[in-house]
Description:
Layout: H1 13-29, H2 32-37, H3 45-72, H4 79-103, H5 106-114, H6 131-195, H7 199-219, E1 225-226, H8 227-242, E2 249-254, E3 263-264, H9 270-279, E4 287-296, E5 299-307, H10 322-334, E6 339-346, E7 351-359
Parallel strand pairs: 2-4
Antiparallel strand pairs: 1-3, 4-5, 5-7, 6-7
Helix pairs in contact: 3-4, 3-6, 4-6, 6-7, 6-10, 7-8
Amino acid sequence: MPPLSLRLSFRSPLIQALVWVVMGLFFLLFQPLSWQASLQISLPSEFWIRQAILFSFLVGIFYLNSELLVPRLLFHNQIGLFILMVLLVVFILMPVMKTIEGWLNLPELMHKAFHPDSDEPARRSNPWFDFFLFLLSLLVLGVSTSVKVVQKWQEDVQLRQNLEQQKISSELSFLKAQINPHFFFNTLNNIYALTLSDIDTARQALHNLSRMMRYVLYETRKDVTFLSQEIAFLQDYIKLMQLRLTDKVKVTFRHPASLNDMSIAPMMFLPFVENAFKHGVSAQSSSCILINIEQKGNSIHLEVKNTIFNNNSVLLEESNGIGLTNTKRRLDLLYPGKYTLQVDEQAPENTFQVNLKMQLS
């Protein structure tokens, strides 16, 4: 999705190296033995060999857990087996380290380092259990599990965002494909009616339609167009509709004389205007259609108001209003949280009114 602003980049070799250096210094050097070594106690070289071997084992179990146990067991809901394998790794590591310490004769050497004047032999600890190593191993495995889980979560989020984006793009293409034929179907019907009564007027209508088709064919291929072009398209459409209207229909179109041209999704206003001409015109009664566009900064306000008749009432959600329904869906997809749409059918005044306010960038 938007992509996540903070992403864990532990897969980067440089980041991994830095993390392991920090962990090595914190867990292996800054421990009680090192604190006591600062009190003028000379630790044997075998101690640092043991630390280096332990560090290598910890790195190994980190990646064994993150690359094998977590993906194969934890992510497949085999939680009991995952816990069992983690404990098995820990309980294998401890006797292995005890064996290495025995090979290095480290208990005797450490006893001499801390008790140089004592003739007593070093006391033998538990032959296989080391409480500090037990906690340290669990901590490393816990960090490994957490890192892998966070990476998996981020990948899942990114995958969902990509799928959602693909779904939105496909849906927008489908919606635009539905709106455009719907518009041409109505317009061509009007021109056909004009050819039966007035050839010159039909020619003018075809000229207007060809200019509008050029806009639809080229501009709607893009994700956005200019607000000035969208308004010019509406002007051509209104002129085309007025060719077939009688004097009983009063059409008023207002728009800003000076525009702060901005980007807008193409053919966003047309379904509302088309709806007004479709349901606001009567051959017997007087009617009026008002189309008003206002701009204040980044805010665009479209008001469409038309007369309605008892047999011609229409709501936004009606199934026959294909363009309106799809336009509302486009608004939800393209301008989430950046638009308000009010549809008001006022029976006493016999008017149907749409108010659309959008925040453009």
